[in-house]
Specification:
The complex is a heterodimer of chains A (about 350) and B (about 450).
Chain A lengths: L5 H8 L5 H14 L5 H10 L6 H10 L5 H9 L11 H15 L6 H9 L3 H6 L1 H5 L6 H9 L2 H4 L12 H14 L2 H10 L5 H14 L3 H13 L3 H13 L4 H12 L3 H14 L5 H7 L5 H14 L4 H8 L5 H13 L6
Helix pairs in contact in A: 1-2, 1-22, 2-4, 2-22, 3-4, 4-6, 5-6, 7-10, 12-13, 12-14, 13-14, 14-16, 15-16, 16-17, 16-18, 17-18, 17-19, 18-20, 19-20, 20-21, 20-22, 21-22
Chain B lengths: L9 E9 L8 E4 L9 E2 L4 E9 L2 E8 L6 H15 L6 E2 L8 E5 L4 H27 L2 E11 L6 E2 L1 E4 L4 E3 L14 E4 L6 E9 L7 E5 L11 E2 L2 H13 L4 E5 L6 E2 L10 H30 L9 E8 L10 E8 L2 E5 L6 H10 L4 E5 L12 H6 L15 E5 L2 E4 L5 H19 L3
Parallel strand pairs in B: 3-15, 5-6, 14-16, 20-21
Antiparallel strand pairs in B: 1-4, 1-8, 2-7, 4-5, 8-13, 9-17, 10-11, 10-12, 13-14, 18-19, 19-20, 22-23
Helix pairs in contact in B: 1-2, 3-4, 5-7
The chains are: A mainly alpha (about 350), B alpha+beta (about 450).
Chain lengths: ~350, ~450
């Protein structure tokens, strides 16, 4: 699409050949927040039959156009995905639509989320827990649902009995605890700081300092940053410290972003630099926009947008012709965010 | 470990037997729970045997359309084959394709269902034995060739999806998995299954092979239709045989614990009849893709030879107490520079690729689900990432059984048990190579 605008490229991404590219286009359109993209997103979430279309549902909530509520109500009732009744994904798509409705001020399907909570479903407490806790408190139904997400409720054994052993679920639990930010939540996070999965430990560090950056917790996270055997956990702990004001940790993250061998860990380091929005790290991030691994390049373009500065647009223009569709989409989003310039 | 080195003439024979349950309506396939009664057998389930002999030393390779093989069946079949055919029982290498539309269980608690299950299982064991006997009688002077085929179109894809927080979720039904708001998708949690390995056998001087052992890692796991079926492996086998008349295909699955047939999903809406039609169409589609790679590779084989040695090594543990042990069987056969390894199920593909890369015999074929009980066996990092396969964590000791729910204990893999299988296979292959002075 050499003549397409960045926004047109993103919208066209909803029809990409790969389902994950489609979902990423939807995610980026949500971040962009343009109302003119609502129509294509509605078509995507209605016609698409993959579970990952939940990214489009979330995007519609972020854009904030309440005219999509009838569509979202329909998706709660009939999500147009395969009913994987023994697993979670169909319910998660329905729940995502119910959460999106609440974000748009429509509580007509809050009962579905309440039913999931009543069944002690991981979809409510883990997969959608953070999204529910981030909802505004303006609706009574939202407040009621949030009140059901407690440390005690999340700590209950769930139907398949894996809420406390599957790292994917436990990492989301750690995110939930960080948002709850109660003393009990912090206690749970301190326990998770020694979980067997580095990805859980990393999230626990971030959540702990988000919930309570007390000296005691800073010391615990410092020990993780300096002594965890896994680079990922060290990185996330350093990021948590930097977010809590320890700017001396930024240099360590930048060092990781410049030299880690594992592409995923390196991408996370680049992502962290973007989230810290430290303009001094632009050079490191810019270099990784040329990394051999496409996810590293994608994170680099995303980080450049967050950091801003003069390097971002030229790099994004260059990445519009990247081999990876996901990198091209990320670049298009950066340029579209510059008011559509960068054709 | 026992090894045997012999010089002599290679002979090979093959046979196939039907193992479809005689009373399917009283039974149900296992592996994915069914929500409605079984309607019947959609396409026949079969097992195959390949008999191989060099100078009077024989071995048998069994493939089957089953999900799993009971260890008791292994014991009965190999002992009977050994006795009837006067060979070492441990030289029977078992495998199943892990087909989730097979391996019957009772549909209800009735005595009729119990009798139907006993009859179905009896048929399976008898078929294993009969196929070996027929294959032995079918042996003829032969030569073998090894080939690799690269799939140009998707068949088995990695079914774990990595998210930007480092964890993995499953992408059942090709559905992409649910990515929680605020997270990005990184990509597949491991490699896709894009290569198949093939051992061809033809009569000496013939133009075409009469048998091919095809080894490809993937769950056959399309959907929980209320039928018994050979699933993708059955369809692939039929399609290759249709294109290459006179060929008997033996299909093996190995190290496909994180691989699934995603490429044809999602299934269309419309109820069971529509799902069954989609299931059949999907099987034909992936069979066509598979045959497009495999059939030409079989036809292109031109390095046939007659290895003068058959060597064998066997390692197991827990066979004296299979119900309560971490039963593991590794059964390795070499024919000249070709290795065949029968291993437990559910290793992840990355470990299979590692075994192939490190193998002292580059021409290595593996066959999984051999009657021992490994469970999902990933590389250690996968336990930290999560997903269905590892959602209960890893066992901390050989005797660690998890009380998953009341009345149900689950045996989980040790953190390094997959690596242990790989290392054991490679050690056995190396020892066989050292034994022949290579």
């Amino acid at each position: 699409m050499p003549d397409a605008t960045p926004l047109e490229r993103l919208i066209a991404g909803l029809d990409a050949a790969d389902r994950y590219d489609q979902a990423d286009a939807a995610r980026l359109l949500g971040e962009l927040g343009r109302r003119e993209t609502v129509g294509p997103l509605v078509r995507y979430v209605t016609e698409n039959r993959y579970y990952c279309k939940a990214a489009g549902i979330h995007a519609l909530a972020r854009i904030g156009d309440a005219s999509v509520c009838p569509t979202l109500r329909g998706l709660v009732d009939e999500p147009n995905v395969v009913d994987d009744w023994f697993w979670v994904d169909c319910r998660a798509v329905r729940a995502a639509a119910a959460v999106a409705l609440l974000a748009l001020g429509d509580d007509s399907r809050a009962g579905y989320l309440g039913d999931l909570a009543g069944r002690n479903d991981d979809v409510f407490f883990c997969f959608c827990g953070p999204a529910i806790l981030r909802l505004p408190d303006d609706l009574p139904a939202t407040r009621d649902l949030k009140a059901r997400i407690t440390v005690e409720a999340v700590g209950e054994p769930a139907a398949r009995g894996v809420r406390h052993s599957d790292p994917a679920r436990v990492a989301l639990k750690a995110e939930v605890f960080g948002l709850l930010a109660t003393p009990q939540a912090c206690e749970a996070l301190r326990d998770l700081a020694s979980f067997h999965s580095r990805y859980v430990r990393g999230q626990a560090a971030v959540s702990l300092l988000r919930a309570d950056p007390s000296e005691k917790h800073v010391r615990l996270v410092e020990a993780m940053a300096d002594g965890d055997p896994a680079d990922f956990a060290c990185l996330k702990a350093s990021f948590a410290l930097a977010t809590a004001g320890r700017r001396d940790r930024v240099a360590l993250i930048a060092q990781a972003a410049g030299g880690l061998d594992d592409p995923f860990d390196l991408a996370v380091a680049v992502e962290c630099l973007g989230l810290l929005e430290d303009g001094e790290q632009t050079g490191v991030v810019e270099r990784q926009a040329l990394h051999a691994d496409p996810y590293v390049r994608q994170c680099a373009v995303e980080a450049l947008e967050r950091i801003g500065g003069p390097a971002a647009v030229p790099v994004a223009r260059q990445r519009l012709s990247d081999d990876s569709p996901r990198v091209r989409l990320q670049a298009a989003k950066l340029l579209a965010a510059q008011d559509g310039e960068g054709r | 470990m026992s090894t045997t080195a012999l010089d002599g003439t290679l002979t090979i024979g093959v046979a196939r037997r039907d193992i479809s349950p005689p009373k399917p309506e009283l039974l149900k396939p296992t592996g994915m729970d069914r929500r409605e009664p079984t309607r019947g057998v959609l396409d026949a389930l079969v097992c195959e045997a390949m008999a191989v002999e060099v100078s009077g030393e024989r071995a048998f390779i069994i493939t089957s359309d089953l999900r799993t093989i009971d260890h008791a069946w292994v014991v009965e079949a190999r002992e009977t084959v050994g006795r009837r055919l006067d060979c070492d029982p441990r030289r029977v290498l078992f495998s199943s394709v892990h087909n989730h539309c097979s391996s019957p269980a009772v549909a209800d608690d009735s005595p009729e269902a119990a009798a139907a299950l006993a009859e179905a299982n009896r048929k399976i064991v008898d078929a294993f034995i009969a196929a070996c006997v027929e294959a032995d009688a079918d042996r003829r002077p032969a030569e073998i060739a090894f080939a690799r085929a690269h799939l140009a179109e998707p068949v088995g894809e990695n079914r774990r999806l990595r998210l930007s927080n480092g964890t993995c979720v499953n992408a059942w039904h090709g559905g992409g998995g649910f990515c929680p708001p605020g997270r990005k998708v990184v990509g597949p949690g491991g490699p896709h299954s894009t290569e198949t390995r093939i051992l061809c056998a033809r009569e000496v001087g013939a133009d075409r092979p009469f048998a091919a052992l095809v080894s490809y890692p993937s769950h056959p796991h399309l959907s929980a239709i209320p039928h018994f079926s050979g699933e993708f492996p059955g369809a692939a086998r039929r399609e290759i045989e249709r294109r290459l008349p006179g060929l008997t295909v033996l299909h093996a699955n190995y190290t496909g614990g994180d691989i699934d047939i995603h490429c044809v999903h999602p299934a269309p809406p419309g109820g069971t009849d529509a799902e069954v039609r989609w299931f059949q169409e999907s099987n034909r589609l992936v069979a066509r893709r598979f045959a497009d790679a495999v059939a030409p590779a079989i036809e292109a084989c031109d390095d046939y030879g007659r290895p003068a040695t058959l060597r064998h090594a066997y390692w197991s543990r827990g066979e004296d107490d299979p119900g309560n042990s971490r039963l593991t069987i590794i059964n390795v056969l070499t024919l000249g520079d070709v290795g065949v390894a029968s291993i437990p199920g559910e290793l992840f593909l990355a470990l299979g690729r590692q075994a192939e890369a490190r193998s002292p015999l580059p021409k290595l074929l593996m066959m999984g689900y051999n009657g021992s009980v490994g469970g999902y066996q990933p590389p250690p990092l996968a336990f930290e990432q999560g997903s269905y396969e590892v959602m209960r964590g890893y066992a901390t000791s050989e005797t660690d059984l998890l009380q998953a729910r009341p009345g149900r204990k689950v045996r989980r893999a040790l953190k390094d048990s997959g690596q242990q299988v790989v290392d054991r296979v490679l050690t056995m292959l190396a020892d066989l190579g050292a034994d022949r002075g290579q």
